[in-house]
Amino acid sequence: MNKRERVMAALHGQETDHVPGCFWRHYTPELERGEDIVEAHLKFYRDTDVDFLKISSDGYFGWPAKVLKDLQDPAALYEIEHISPDSPFIREQVERAKKIVERLDGECVTIYTLFCPLSIFRLQVGWDKMMACMRKDPAAVMHVCDVIAEDENKLIDAIIHEAGVDGLLYSVQNAEKTRFTVEEYREWVEPSDRKVLEFTNSISECCFLHCCGWDADEAGTCNHMESWQHYPSAAVSWASYVDHMDVNEIRAFFGERPAWGGFDNRIGGVLYRGTEEEIKEETRRLIALVGKKGFLLGPDCSLPTDIDPQRIRWVIEASRSI
């Protein structure tokens, strides 16, 4: 199998010659624009020899809507306007992705990273204001998320059909047990999530649901995983060390969907601090749990920016020796 065949087989629950792997990191602000970010992605891909590439949306977090700047009253959220598909915010992301895909020339599957609408809103206004608005006027926040979802779908359409990216890593957040009840989440957050996920799944067979544990980890809690249990996707990426579910448990929880993950992404984890043999042994342990069907090796979330790419290559080497 080549890299593309291997990843697509894994996503279809078929046995692979070896378990594919992909790890990712964020990039520094100095690399967030222009040709530098393209070269950084390609260098990371070559240095690690991963089986597929997650393209970052670094530099385009938040949302460039006038009403979200210096927001004071949630009532103003009803005035939000759609972003033009021709706006620099959208076009620059499409061009970035297109350049990376063209340079890879079909060698591997590529997926683009986007956050859920509520996280996009939060990245623009901050945690405290997001929660204040949600508590005061949840309908106003739902309206904003709905508008963002519709515009995200325009971006996703261009990313896939114009840039040639295969699919999406859709990062869902804000389901910490200390933030919303499951019922609140399903009423206030799920509608905009489903709008994006259902559209993406209609045009791509490579939609990864990333159940992000970063915010829960920072807050010293874990996620209401049941908030996302019925979200549609081809595969699930999850925070095994935050939400305390191994690969077999997560696959069973999500109806035997393929799972991508297994490695602690934090600086205390074996991937960051372990020896070569410890990292390879952890790779073998993870594969032994589930075998070569419906599993892709990866991290709980983004790796520290200073991680040595050789550590990721050790994972890939160990997987290919099994």
Task: Please explain how this structure is put together.
- The protein is of the alpha/beta class.
- Helices cover about 45% and strands about 10% of the residues.
- The chain has 14 helices and seven strands.
- Strands 1-2-3-4-5-6-7 form a seven-stranded parallel sheet, sandwiched between helices.
- α9 links the parallel β4 and β5.
- α4 packs across α6 (about 140-160), α6 (about 140-160) packs parallel to α8 (about 190-205) and α13 crosses α14.
- The protein starts with a helix and ends with a helix.
Distance between the termini: 14 Å
Assembly of the depicted chains: single chain
Order of helices and strands: HHEHEHHHEHHEHEHHEHHEH
Shape, principal axes of CA atoms: globular
| Rg, Å, rounded | 19 Å
Count of DSSP H/I helices: 14
Spatial order of strands in the largest sheet: 1-2-3-4-5-6-7
Residues in β-strands, percent = 5-15%
Task: Describe the structure concisely.
This protein is of the alpha/beta class. It contains 14 helices and seven strands.
Q: Topology of this protein?
A:
Elements: H1 3-11, H2 34-48, E1 52-55, H3 88-104, E2 109-115, H4 117-125, H5 127-136, H6 138-161, E3 167-172, H7 182-188, H8 190-203, E4 207-211, H9 214-218, E5 235-238, H10 240-243, H11 247-253, E6 259-263, H12 270-273, H13 276-290, E7 295-299, H14 309-320
Parallel strand pairs: 1-2, 2-3, 3-4, 4-5, 5-6, 6-7
Helix pairs in contact: 2-3, 4-5, 4-6, 5-6, 6-8, 13-14
